[in-house]
């Protein structure tokens, strides 16, 4: 099966490029809000025999071969790969769909029965017409190599298909020739697309793809706190560089890629012929001239999941600040221990990029139950069960969880990063940026940095 299965049917007017589950979540939020706009001008055509489902088995479904699967603790499924000695947190299944009554299917041929059940589950059956909104949106997954990220992306891709969208899984990092094959395979649909939706404008892959497209409508959906920095850099006309790397000297690869990055920044600057939209739940203070900012209120998440069962305890949300070289690992361990003790936290929801060795130490030295979520935390929390208090360090979730959990009574509390926790190699502006992430969050309880004795 070709890794590009799922591209049959009319050419997609809207292409969305994602590299993380959070980006795909926010593409679905954007599509939910703009369903009428996505469908505008799209011609409804008979769907191919579930090409996306076959495609999912190759790269984004349960049948795809993952070379890292055998090395994962807890089996081949990264969604259930808990640390040794840790019990999996029982997560309630999604609300059961209303399946056709057996009596109603009794006289129906077996093939038609299967189609009826698929429709009841919200999935397309062979020969069905694609939903109007989904017929015009193709999500292109530029697959990463990290097993946890791949696992979450698979499950998010399944949700996208259930909403009627095409999903095209690209093994974009599957070897030295993969980038050339990916870009070559996408060149045609890129040139025909009217609208490009992207989750990471800092991505070199995305920046390279932007040099090919002729689309006059560009949309940037949230990639977490990085969105705040992207908008500010665009407004100031600066080169696009991630906040935790800003201040360092450009490397050889940065210099080599500089012309592509500059071209991408120009294309992301609106003009009379090109519209640029930022779809975000993050606070945006510096808005570039001509850029449309649309608020992401997590309406799709609230409609799709929950409300959750709320328990009396506290949960903690992990961060990858150690992995990105911003916070010292020993200081982080001490801060987690102190915060969990002060607030009675029992569970630690790991960030998908946290290193397994670090998580093992956290489990052993803090007594916290380490949970590696199968979906972005906004969906896990909305699905429940979830503690009445969620503790976090400065990160995207201090902005997104209050929106996803609106009306549930769950309190989000954020702990500031003490400047003494930063590494010697952290960006000079790391402390100011992290403080800004906390200070601009709405509907959260702000905690002082914990004291490390």
What does this structure look like?
This protein has 453 residues and is an alpha/beta fold. It has 16 helices and 13 strands. The chain has helices at residues 21-33, 35-39, 51-60, 102-105, 110-120, 147-162, 178-192, 204-210, 226-236, 252-267, 299-304, 329-343, 356-366, 377-383, 397-404, 430-439, and strands spanning 14-18, 137-142, 166-170, 195-198, 217-221, 275-280, 291-295, 310-317, 345-349, 369-371, 386-392, 411-415, 445-447. Strands 3-2-1-4-5-6-7 form a 7-stranded parallel β-sheet, sandwiched between helices. The chain has a 6-stranded parallel β-sheet with strand order 10-9-8-11-12-13, with helices on both faces. β2, α6 (147-162) and β3 form a beta-alpha-beta unit. The radius of gyration is 22 Å and the shape is globular. The chain starts with 13 loop residues before the first strand and ends in a 6-residue tail after the last strand.
Distance between the termini: 57 Å
- Give the overall pLDDT as a whole number: 76
Write down the overall geometry. Answer: globular
Q: How many helices? A: 16
Share of helical residues: 25-40%
Radius of gyration: 22 Å
Largest sheet strand order: 3-2-1-4-5-6-7
Structural class: alpha/beta
Features:
453 residues, alpha/beta, 6-stranded parallel sheet, 16 helices, globular, disordered N terminus
Short description:
The chain is an alpha/beta fold and 453 residues long. The chain has helices spanning 21-33, 35-39, 51-60, 102-105, 110-120, 147-162, 178-192, 204-210, 226-236, 252-267, 299-304, 329-343, 356-366, 377-383, 397-404, 430-439; strands at 14-18, 137-142, 166-170, 195-198, 217-221, 275-280, 291-295, 310-317, 345-349, 369-371, 386-392, 411-415, 445-447.
């Amino acid at each position: 099966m070709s890794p590009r299965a799922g591209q049959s049917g009319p050419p997609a007017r809207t292409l969305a490029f994602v590299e993380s589950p959070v980006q795909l979540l926010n593409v679905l939020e954007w599509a939910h809000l703009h369903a009428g706009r996505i469908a505008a001008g799209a011609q409804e055509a008979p769907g191919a025999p579930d090409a996306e489902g076959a495609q999912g088995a190759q790269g984004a479904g349960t049948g795809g071969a993952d070379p890292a699967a055998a090395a994962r603790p807890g089996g081949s499924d990264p969604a259930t790969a808990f640390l040794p000695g840790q019990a999996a947190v029982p997560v309630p299944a999604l609300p059961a769909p209303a399946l056709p009554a057996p009596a109603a299917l009794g006289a129906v041929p077996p093939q038609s029965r299967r189609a009826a059940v698929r429709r009841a589950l919200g999935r397309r059956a062979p020969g069905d017409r694609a939903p109007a909104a989904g017929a015009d949106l193709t999500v292109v997954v530029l697959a990463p190599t990290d097993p946890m990220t791949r696992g979450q992306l698979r499950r998010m891709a399944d949700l996208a298909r259930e909403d009627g969208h095409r999903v095209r899984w690209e093994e974009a990092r599957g070897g030295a020739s993969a980038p050339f094959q990916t870009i070559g395979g996408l060149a045609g649909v890129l040139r025909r697309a009217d609208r490009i939706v992207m989750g990471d404008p800092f991505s070199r892959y995305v920046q390279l793809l932007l040099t090919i497209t002729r689309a006059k409508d560009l949309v940037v959906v949230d990639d977490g706190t990085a969105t705040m920095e992207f908008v500010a850099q665009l407004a100031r006309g600066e080169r696009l560089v991630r906040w935790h790397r800003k201040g360092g000297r450009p490397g050889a690869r940065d210099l080599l890629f500089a012309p592509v990055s500059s071209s991408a920044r120009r294309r992301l600057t609106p003009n009379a012929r090109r519209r640029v939209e930022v779809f975000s739940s993050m606070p945006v203070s510096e808005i570039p001239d001509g850029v449309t900012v649309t608020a992401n209120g997590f309406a799709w998440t609230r409609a799709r999941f929950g409300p959750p069962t709320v328990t009396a305890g506290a949960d903690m949300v992990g961060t990858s600040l150690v992995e990105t070289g911003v916070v010292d690992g020993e200081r982080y361990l001490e801060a987690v221990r102190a915060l969990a003790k002060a607030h009675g936290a029992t569970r630690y929801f790991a960030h998908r990029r946290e290193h397994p060795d670090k998580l093992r130490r956290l489990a052993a030295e803090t007594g916290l139950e380490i949970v590696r979520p199968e979906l972005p935390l906004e969906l896990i929390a909305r699905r429940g069960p979830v503690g009445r208090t969620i503790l976090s360090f400065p990160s995207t979730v201090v902005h997104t969880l209050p929106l996803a959990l609106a009306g549930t009574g769950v309190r989000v509390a954020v702990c500031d990063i003490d400047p003494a926790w930063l590494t010697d190699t952290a960006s000079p502006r790391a402390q100011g940026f992290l403080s800004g992430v906390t200070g601009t969050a709405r509907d959260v309880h702000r905690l002082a940095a914990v004291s490390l004795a």
